[in-house]
Amino acid sequence: MSPVSRSLPPEGEAPGERIGLHSLAPAPGSRRPRKRVGRGEGSGTGKTSGRGQKGAGSRSGARKRPAFEGGQMPIHMRMRKLRGPHMKKSMPFEPFRTHTQPVNLDDLAERFEAGAAVTLEAMRSRGLGKRSGIPVKILGRGELDKALTVSAHAFSAGARERIQAAGGTCVVVGD
Fold it and tell me: Of 19, 20, 101, 125, which alpha carbon lies 20 to 30 A from 116's?
């Protein structure tokens, strides 16, 4: 047997011992012991236990807010706002933006036969618009050369135009 093909046991194991859950250990140097604070000056974290001298951070019960950014202007104040009274429309509008799943015409053309009824369930079964609870919007990328009856939550103007030009119909559903 050549020395290259022979496998050596990991460090600390006897030759022939099986590797299993009982012999698993983290890689050497990957784990550090936890810091034990307040255990005398010789430990490096005695006296004030790494909290400094005075101030709110040195007191018991002191903690930062979850979104505290160290005094920097917080993200909810940096984000743009809409005008209006204090309601959803005037709050930062990224969290309240409506989301839709895009489905393009070229996807419909390659997955459906001419004259087929394209429903939400039919699209889902063919891998389109799979996220449940999120409206499906048909977009106009690609060409459509067959008549389809397409049911979706919304249609772009270009998609509606191309579907109707191919002899199909657009049905808006409200889930």
Answer: 101
CA gap 57, 78 in Å, rounded: 26
Q: Which residues pair with 150 in a beta bridge?
A: 118, 170
Residues 29, 35, 40: CA angle, nearest 5 degrees: 130
CA dist., res. 50 & res. 10, Å (int)? 39
pLDDT average, residue stretch 10-38: 84
For the segment 100-111, the average pLDDT, to the nearest whole number, is 93
Fold of 101-172: Ribosomal Protein L15; Chain: K; domain 2 (3.100.10)
The SS3 of residue 146 is: coil
Band of residue 67 on the pLDDT scale cut at 50, 70, 90 = confident
The residues that bridge with 169 in the sheet, in sequence order, are 149
> Pick from 124, 141, 125: which is nearest to 133 by CA?
124
Q: Amino acid identity of 74?
A: P
Is the pTM above the cut of 0.70? no
CB-based contacts of 88, cutoff 8 Å, min separation 6: 96
Could you tell me the residue ranges of all domains in the chain?
101-172
Helix, strand, or coil (residue 172): strand
